Amino acid sequence: MEKTDDSIKEIIQKAKEGNQIAFSTLLDTFWNDVYGFQILRTKNENDAEDITIRTFSRAFDKIDTYDETYEFKTWLITISKNLHVDLLRKRKRSLMNEMDSRGDEVKKVLDETPTVEDRLITEQNLAHLLQDIKKLKPHYQKVINLRYFQEMSYADIAKELNEPVNNVKVKLLRAKKLLAEIIKKK
């Protein structure tokens, strides 16, 4: 179903007011445009999908800053392009650092078996993390539980929640951001 400019503006306005259905509609309407743009740029499905998810997350977080004199699709593509450039810069820095550190590296075989202290710290951290997760809204708790504790795929989570896969990805991204904010406040 092709949406008119006026209906898109109405949906954007509803999204600015916090309407979750409006966010889902925008995601469904523009997902293929942003994902297609990234596939052409990255030539990698995983990177394209990751950048597309982050694009919508950033756009939805900053929807109040959207200027309606520009097309919404153009705004999304600009965000997407900037995220891709950031990713490339980060990878380049990481690669350069890795090359520098390997120049003088002496190969060592490490015993990576966790010590008793390591296991205790891990258990304590997990207990704190579970307490923080319980502070989230139930639908965010559920998506985190399904993904990270039950290790379900996005497709399986989508079936379980009876939602589109794209919505699950964005919901999971939002849940992680909210969880990070809770942890930072400590």
From TrEMBL:
CDD domains: Sigma70_r4. Residues 37-93 form the RNA polymerase sigma-70 region domain. The keyword S-adenosyl-L-methionine does not apply. Pfam families: Sigma70_r2, Sigma70_r4_2. InterPro entries: RNA_pol_sigma-70-like (IPR039425), RNA_pol_sigma-70_dom (IPR014284), RNA_pol_sigma70_r2 (IPR007627), RNA_pol_sigma70_r4_t2 (IPR013249), RNA_pol_sigma_r2 (IPR013325), RNA_pol_sigma_r3/r4-like (IPR013324), WH-like_DNA-bd_sf (IPR036388). This is RNA polymerase, sigma-24 subunit, ECF subfamily. Keywords: Sigma factor, Transcription, Transcription regulation. GO terms for biological process: DNA-templated transcription initiation. It comes from the Bacteria. Belongs to the sigma-70 factor family. ECF subfamily. Gene3D superfamilies: 1.10.1740.10, Winged helix-like DNA-binding domain superfamily/Winged helix DNA-binding domain. Residues 133-179 form the RNA polymerase sigma factor 70 region 4 type domain. GO terms for molecular function: DNA binding; sigma factor activity.
